[in-house]
Amino acid sequence: MAPRANRSFVWDNFSKLSSTKVQCNLCKKDLAVSGGVTIGMHAHLRSKHPSVVESSSSMKDGSATTMPITGFVKRRSCPDSRQERITEALAKVIAENMLPILIVESESVRNLLGMLEPGYKVPCRQTTTSHLEAMHRTVSNKLEEKLSTADFISMTTDIWTSLANEAYISFTASYVDESWVLKSPVLSTVPIPERHTQTIIAEHLSDLAEKWAISDKVVACVHDGAANIKDAGERNKWTDVACAAHKLHLCVTTSMGIDKVTNNPVAKCVGAAARLVGHFAHSPMATTELMKRQATMSPDDPQRKLIQHCKTRWNSVFDMFERLVDLRWPVCAVTQ
User: Fold this and answer.
1) Taking a C-beta distance cutoff of 8 angstroms, is the pair 153, 216 a contact?
2) Residue 294, SS3?
3) Same domain membership, residue 238 and residue 155
4) How far apart are CA 298 and CA 203, in angstroms?
5) Per residue in 13-41, pLDDT tens?
6) Whole-model pTM?
7) 74 in the Ramachandran plot: left (φ > 0), alpha (ψ -120 to 50) or beta?
8) Boundary (domain end) residue, out of 242, 264, 296
9) How many domains does the chain have?
10) CA 5/CA 29 separation, integer angstroms
11) Core vs surface per residue 34-47: b (16+ CB within 10 A) or e
């Protein structure tokens, strides 16, 4: 059978694998086709092989002409407005998912954006940083407007240590908006390399309140009641309020005798449970066997993971007992 006279020139660079699939002869990539439509093959050549020189179909007189693929397919441009919207969306993804800015230089990310929008120019790290800073200013301005409408604000603060053993202090503002909805935005999380004295903490609180223009609106300072933070709010003429959850934790641990080494039966039980959980935490083989026993005894129930007891976590004791009660015999059987 003679070849079709109007056969597309793109077939010179593709091999037909089946009725629904072809393969590019240049990069060996498989493409799906339907009903002989060559739009996908045109797009592939345009995005992946723009410099390829194609040979057109032979004329009836036997002569042949050559034309670059760009002569048949025109590259779609990306308008400046769309370029800006895509960059803003990319910066939002980085901010919301706490991704490193270096991701814009990732080859896989650039390939993905190139497939979605061939005409889009991926920004560099400096440009991405500028967009993130602009987003920060926009969000800060909106939050400052909302804080200005609040009549009274309660400040919550705490000092915590990162995995890199770096100290940070965080501030949260709690207020009721015009619709009587409680709002608790985090205003700041900053490093605190100085000694964690009452004076230093009070100065951080004062500086933050002045930065957000809420010094005259703050009525209370909520904290865990540690010795170095007591009366820190009073230094700024705010009422100091001890955290209720922290006080409850202290009451429970003290009454159960697990706040220190004692001969209290509950303290002994917690200590034994902590050592048991520690055994599984340091033994991958025991953990794997534990999961198998759980699946065998309770195939319809979700598998539970043990949680290491930490005296500074107010719910860790109850979580640990709940896991041990639910696991029951599988734990004992594995440790025998």
Assistant:
1) no
2) helix
3) yes
4) 55
5) 788 888 788 888 878 888 888 766 777 78
6) 0.56
7) beta
8) 242
9) 4
10) 27
11) eeeebeebbebbbb
